[in-house]
Design a protein that fits this description.
Elements: E1 2-6, H1 11-22, E2 27-31, H2 39-44, E3 52-55, E4 60-63, H3 65-75, H4 86-122, H5 128-151, H6 162-176, H7 186-196, H8 202-206
Parallel strand pairs: 1-2
Antiparallel strand pairs: 1-3, 3-4
Helix pairs in contact: 1-3, 1-6, 4-5, 4-6, 5-7
Length: 223
């Protein structure tokens, strides 16, 4: 069975978990705190980042969420998440990269640093200026999701895709950390409510980080 080395609030780990669940791939969760830089984990991924998936019987180790997702898309036929025409597949990959890079860099990463890592690792208080800027940029990303949903059933086209999972993974972490204001984003909120209602998402909504608790609406599929 696959072993998934992940950190609960790592959005890239969440993206892989969602994909594996959507495709019906069984796996075991292994908690990994990347900042601890354990030798055994660095042997699996010298970059020291989650997620990593490992299958000991076949001697397979995969690192980097995009590489992992591409591997399972190529090897598991069930519930394709990079699908459609060549143009649609290119759009899925474009949006996945946009959410993995821009949404993470603008919103998720600063929230994780200020509200999680500073508290758990450095024992410091968050910088309110950084938090305000991240929440301001979050609105811009939500406006773009509003725009996409105005023109499509799902973010990249007529069916759910890896782009939806990538965006939802980032937003779920930001939402857990209280960094999202959904007011004025009815389209994005409706899309996210549908994603939250999927069986693949339920384990994420049920998990809690030690010390850090999410806002009351976090696990409410109707919120």
């Amino acid at each position: 069975m696959w072993q998934l080395y992940q950190f609960p609030l790592c959005p890239f780990s969440r993206k892989v978990r969602l994909q594996l669940s959507e495709k019906g791939v069984p796996y075991e969760l292994w908690r990994e705190n990347p900042w601890e830089a354990r030798d055994d984990f660095l042997a699996l991924n010298p970059a020291g980042r989650t997620p990593v998936v490992h299958e000991s019987e076949r001697g397979i180790t995969l690192c980097d969420s995009r590489a992992i997702c591409e591997y399972f898309e190529e090897t598991i036929d069930k519930n394709a998440l990079i699908n459609g025409t060549a143009v649609t597949r290119a759009e899925i990959r474009r949006l996945t990269a946009l959410f993995d890079e821009n949404l993470f860099g603008d919103v998720t990463a600063p929230l994780l640093h200020e509200r999680m890592k500073k508290r758990l690792v450095y024992r410091q208080s968050p910088d309110s200026r950084v938090l305000r800027e991240a929440m301001k940029l979050a609105h811009e990303h939500l406006y773009y999701i509003d725009h996409l949903i105005d023109h499509r059933q799902w973010l990249a086209g007529p069916t759910i895709s890896l782009a939806d999972l990538a965006a939802a993974a980032q937003l779920s972490v930001a939402d857990y950390l209280g960094g999202l204001d959904w007011a004025g984003h009815e389209q994005a909120a409706s899309w996210y409510a549908v994603i939250k209602s999927r069986p693949s998402f339920r384990p994420l909504l049920a998990e809690r980080m030690e010390v850090i608790q999410p806002p009351s609406h976090y696990a409410d599929v109707n919120a």
